[in-house]
Amino acid sequence: MPHKSNCIIAVDDDRRALDQIAGILDTTYNVLTTSDLRRAVGWLHDDATVCAIISEQVLRHGRGIDLLGASLKIRPDVRRILITNYGDLAAIVGCFHTGEIQRTISKPIVAAELLGVVGPSQVSDPAGTAPQSARASATA
């Protein structure tokens, strides 16, 4: 098994969604899953290997956009991805403009789509600022 040097946090109230995310990503990353927003924030503070955080928008005890906004302040280097199938478009668009959200994916989660937004080239360039040719060569 390859050495996993980076960690991804996944936050969702749906255990099946968390298991699916972990199943897709765990061959490449250490995947920490939780439905607890405070636990996710603690991991952001305590684990320097965290390279991305993925959160469902609608949670029982908060909103994904608030968690991703907090993560921007705590660890601006961490990639921020929102999972949503709800239409809170105004709030989501506003978070793109402030940088709190960098990408969205919808449910049901498609493995190729998740890997595309969390893949090594995306994590090494979380802002998506590398020229397209540099991103393509990073995945080759």
Describe this structure in words.
- By secondary structure, this protein is an alpha/beta fold.
- The chain has helices spanning 15-25, 37-46, 64-74, 89-98, 111-118, 120-124, 132-139; strands at residues 7-11, 30-34, 50-56, 58-59, 62-63, 79-83, 103-105.
- The strands form 2 sheets. Strands 2-1-3-6-7 form a 5-stranded parallel sheet, with helices on both faces. A two-stranded antiparallel sheet has the order 4-5.
- Helix 4 links the parallel strand 6 (79-83) and strand 7 (103-105).
- Residues 124-140 have low confidence and may be disordered.
Outline the biggest β-sheet: 5 strands, parallel
Structural class: alpha/beta
Q: What's the mean pLDDT score? A: 82
Give the beta-strand count: 7
Q: Low-confidence stretches at least 5 residues in length (pLDDT < 50)?
A: 124-140
Query: Percentage of helical residues?
Result: 40-55%
Estimated share of beta-strand residues = 15-25%
Per DSSP, the total helix count is 7
Distance between the termini: 21 Å
**Rg computed from alpha carbons, rounded to a whole number of angstroms:** 14 Å
Oligomeric state, counting identical vs distinct chains:
single chain
What is the H/E string?
Answer: EHEHEEEHEHEHHH
Shape: globular
Question: How are the strands of the biggest sheet laid out side by side?
Answer: 2-1-3-6-7
Features:
globular; alpha/beta; 7 strands; 140 residues; 7 helices; disordered C terminus; five-stranded parallel beta sheet
Briefly say what this structure is.
The chain is of the alpha/beta class and 140 residues long.
